[in-house]
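Quarterly update from the structural biology core.
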Amino acid sequence: MSFSSLVQDLSLRDASAPRRPGVSRGDASVSTMDDRASCLSRAKSYASTAATSVSISGDIGSQLHAGYSHPLARSWQAERQLTKSMLIYPLFISDQDDEEVLIPSLPNQCRRGINRLVPFLEPLVHKGLRSVILFGVPMRPGTKDALGTAADDPEGPVIRSIRLLRQRFPHLYIVCDVCLCEYTSHGHCGILRDDGSLNNQLSVDRISDVAVAYARAGAHCVAPSDMNDGRIRAIKLKLIEEGIVHSVTLMSYAAKFSGCLYGPFRDAAGSTPSFGDRRCYQLPPGGRGLARRAIVRDIGEGADIIMVKPAGQYLDIIADAKELGRDLPVAAYQVSGEFAMIHAAAKAGVFDLKAMAFESTEGILRAGATIIVSYFVPEFLDWLSN
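Predicted structure, tokenized:
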């Protein structure tokens, strides 16, 4: 029974009850007011008794609203709150020095040449940008070959960008994606055998050389995304041999799943395979056990950070990564397809873009990630400031 119904019920009961003796007609209005006050008092007492009975029956824990009735109290409910220091912004660096081209399938994102980098990043750094991850995009004819030899070219876009950013933004943390797919003529993530299958041994040797070249150039972190078996151990050993293992973080794309969500990235990076697909070396979407094994393997081989990619459809894998690597930071990459879908739905009026950007990211944090790779970083720098 609602409180108003309770008052009405008590009033009806009082109306049918005998009037108190000694009350004249002239005092009728006073009596009515007294009766009304009496009803309210009795109703409150009844409601209080009912609330007490709830607590006595052991249901007091059902009263949760007070814990999130205020905006600040709501923020306290999160185990992890999004901060600027958690964010890594992906950058596509072209070997065309003056290029700045919008990527149609990846809203508000561009492929930029090295001459466009500093003017673009300067305002973002002032707003609190702390880290970027670099993807090289060779555009010049004849640059790509079967071995991806341009990946560690000292005059290539990644190594030149590392040196420039270290000089111009000394506090910016530079992560380099390490893979061959952007540089190979076939678009796969390693060196192939004659039958078109991946040669894991040669691929690992090549990938580890590229990682060391980026580290020598000044990268703070190298992040192999190729998914070849054993590449974490190979990179770690070469960093030890170079004497720089103490200053270069190794972030493993340990649980990288194959699927439909990479299309806009491949448009940006020019890395679509010329034949076949990557299902033989990227994890199958249903392969939770494989992902757990890959995470454990890469931790054992010396990874400093574990990454899960994509993020939103693999929150259970993020939680697994946090469980298996409880002493390591866990990164999650909200990939190009996830980003594009959020933009498309917001444009169609399904939801507010900002609200969904936060909601999707907070879900990733809740699952266990402490580092977020996101194309929303420029917007988050503004939103988190306000």
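The mean pLDDT is 87.
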